[in-house]
Every structure is written in structure tokens, then in C-alpha cells.
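Example (one chain per record):
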Amino acid sequence: MSTINQALFNLLTGSAPLAALVGTRVFPVKLPQKVTYPAIVFARATGPREHSQDGSSGLASPRFEFDCWADS
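Predicted structure:
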């Protein structure tokens, strides 16, 4: 898992109210088959790189999408 994905996983599973609902069923990019619900999937939706007069600044402003899955 990449650094940002691990940080998001830790943030989501570290939230007591959210962890009470989904436990550690937080997945990057794709929901596994035969998963127990409820679960959360997150993925980077967009993320243009920031540029300066000198070219790439090495910074980015990514946006993430979060999908929440449940039986009902």
C-alpha cells in the first residue's frame, strides 16, 4: 500500500465510530469479492500536479473518492 493509501486506511480505521461499523474493512481502489458488509473503498479520483514558473513543484492536490457499501 502506498504512503497516502496507508495514511487514509489508518485515519478511517482509527476513527472509533467508523471502526465500530466497518472494523478494518477499508480497501484501496477495489472491493474484494465475498467481502463482509459494511465496507469502504477509496481511490484517487483526480490529482493534477502543481507547477511553478520553474516547472514541476513536486506538489499535488489529489482528490479521493470514498464508496461505502452495505447490505441495505
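Caption: The first strand starts at residue 26 and ends at 28.
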